[in-house]
Write a structure and sequence with these properties.
about 200 residues; mainly beta; 4-stranded antiparallel beta sheet; about 55% strand; globular
Length: about 200
């Protein structure tokens, strides 16, 4: 934990906590942090109210699932499992005893790598088959896939997604691009417009 408030002094480390290892993502809501663990196939929950974060809960995402990212919205946590080829929804209203509400297959070998949540919809990026899936989670126990799109390119390999308004911003590892998709709040992909911005990566 670091204090990043405006200051003339460098950020100061305020605390730390041990994790299961292979940590891949974090979501923070209020004083609660949710941390995914590749090697532990689990999500750990920490209370951040003090400088020594207290471990208050853990829930398994399944053997060899390889959870890659978590997003928490309200009482629900949304997780994509890279090796498990699944998108899962958990009720985390009780941090000490989280409950899996659903586990939805994204397809064999798809390797879901990231996700974003906007309202009642969850957007899942699948790394190995270069697709974006959109799910309606109005009933979190029965997510419904309402649309899917294949991301074009030489070897796309999408890695991340951010939703803002009617636009989806997707980072592409394979051909070093950022794809901007218009119309993500209108679930008909036939008229989607693609804008390709090539990112010249300098090291």
């Amino acid at each position: 934990i670091s204090n990043l408030a405006a200051s003339t002094t460098p950020p100061i480390l305020r605390g730390s906590a041990a994790t299961l290892g292979g940590t891949s993502s974090i979501a923070v809501v209020g004083i609660i942090a949710y941390v995914t663990s590749h090697t532990g196939d689990a999500v750990q929950i920490f209370d951040l109210s003090t400088s020594s974060p207290a471990h208050i809960g853990t829930f398994s995402t399944g053997a060899c699932s390889d959870p890659n990212q978590i997003v928490v919205a309200g009482r629900f946590a949304y997780v994509v499992n890279y090796a498990g080829d699944t998108f899962e929804v958990y009720d985390v209203s009780n941090s000490a005893s989280s409950t899996r509400l659903s586990s939805t297959s994204t397809g064999a070998g798809t390797n879901p790598i990231s996700l974003a949540v906007s309202g009642r919809y969850v957007y899942v990026i699948n790394y190995s088959n270069d697709t974006l899936h959109i799910y309606d989670v109005a009933d979190p126990s029965v997510p419904v896939r309402v649309s899917s799109i294949t991301l074009t390119g030489t070897t796309p390999r999408p890695t991340g997604i951010y939703i803002q308004g009617r636009y989806a911003y997707i980072t592409i590892e394979g051909d070093n691009t950022l794809k901007i998709i218009e119309g993500v709040n209108v679930f008909s992909f036939q008229n989607w417009q693609f804008l390709y911005l090539t990112l010249h990566l300098k090291f």
